[in-house]
Amino acid sequence: MDLEQVNAYMAMVEKSETTTNKPIGNKLKVGLDLGTAYIVIVVLDEENNPVACEKQAASVLRDGVVVDYPGALTIVRNLKEKLEARLGCELISCAIAMPAGTESSIRTHQYVAEGAGFEVTNVLDEPTAANSIYQIQDGVVVDIGGGTTGLAIFQNGKVTRIEDEATGGTHVSLVIAGNYHVSFNEAEAIKQDYKRHKEIFPVVKPVIEKMAVIINQYVNKDEIDTIYLCGGTCCLTGMEEVIEKKVGIRTVKADNPFLVTPAGIAMNC
Ligand code: ATP
């Protein structure tokens, strides 16, 4: 998909948060994204058309690992029930994804999904899931979520390297909280308000630059010509420009980078 097609598709996924679409065919494909900041479930039909989506802010994972199992279970059950009520049918199976480097925690992620009543049909890493949307052959997909910056390098459509480091949106919020002398939750609200992105930019820029340094460690300018961003933190206005300048590689992102990974997970169910 080119960026225009990605944006059109992601707009439909975003709309499915409030509007339930009639699925084509009988099979529903479900993607469960257990994140550090949000838990998201995306439902697609068998032709990958967005059907419905639900999300909830959560702090039941740390650095990509489930630290509050009962809390995670409750949220996933609630989201599943909400979606089933919207769709009028039971959701049977789902795919899940892990940040790279947390493979030893796959079981816990799986237990959460299974405890909520899903059969797990596929386990992916997050940037690879995101590439189901971008569909790049060569380049790097960088997924910056709440807790981590993860990246997957693709050559000829195949993943050649996966990395993940613990810097994400939580760190951005902590910096805002410190600078504005407000609570973490207030800082989150400021950060997620697009109208305030220009104002907070000088405060958050050093954290974005830290993310750029992480990316720079793993990408080779001679091999990579484009960085594709996704993950909720990439909603920050001007993020791609800071990374492009610091790393020296063209950097692009979908209009709504937040739902790219969850939608990509669902495509692989
Ligand atoms: P991880 O992948 O690290 O486990 P996650 O899956 O929860 O975390 P995402 O759901 O991709 O990560 O992104 C969550 C992050 O995106 C949070 O830090 C949240 O504050 C941030 N975020 C969401 N919306 C916005 C916005 N409009 N502007 C800036 N940041 C945003």
Characterise this structure.
The protein is built from nine helices and twelve strands. By secondary structure, the chain is of the alpha/beta class. A five-stranded mixed sheet has the order 3-2-1-6-7, with helices on both faces. β1 and β2 form a beta hairpin. α7 runs parallel beside α8. The protein starts with a helix and ends with a helix. The mean pLDDT is 94. The structure holds adenosine-5'-triphosphate. Adenosine-5'-triphosphate binds next to α5 and α6.
Descriptive terms for the model:
five-stranded mixed sheet, binds adenosine-5'-triphosphate, 2 domains, alpha/beta, Nucleotidyltransferase, domain 5, 269 residues, 12 strands, globular
Could you give the topology of this structure?
Elements: H1 3-15, E1 28-34, E2 38-45, E3 50-57, E4 61-62, E5 65-66, H2 69-87, E6 93-98, H3 106-115, E7 119-125, H4 126-134, E8 139-144, E9 149-155, E10 158-165, H5 169-180, H6 184-192, H7 197-218, E11 226-230, H8 239-247, E12 250-253, H9 260-267
Parallel strand pairs: 1-6, 6-7, 8-11, 11-12
Antiparallel strand pairs: 1-2, 2-3, 4-5, 8-9, 9-10
The protein binds adenosine-5'-triphosphate (ATP).
